[in-house]
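Researcher: Please predict.
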Amino acid sequence: MQITIKATNLELTQEIKDYLNEKIGGLEKFKEGLNGSVIARAEVGTTTAHHQQGKIFRAEVNLNVPKGNQKVLRAVAERENLFEAIDEVKDKLQRELKKYKGGIIARQRRGARLFKRLGRLSPLSWFRGER
């Protein structure tokens, strides 16, 4: 999985890079069954500098998953701690990736059931409309 990291209003340290690579790279095991490569674009940073109670950190990740046309799975989280925001984004993406794969598997099974049902019919019944 290719991961691109961008920082906004924040210095991108090696610790943040490693943490993001560990968490987002951990989604690699959920992409099994998807043909093609998955590209992740992550953006971390502070929302604005005017908060009186402290900094609010934002983490956003876009996953480009292969399909006929590229489908984008997106998750955004805002927290007072950057690492908590990254964890929340990872959990959201994990749920979305499972849901996306479940839909693909369901469509494949539905098509296979239809094909099996059509295979049981005799060729003459196709023309008569019998079942």
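Model: Helices lie at 14-25, 82-120, 123-128.
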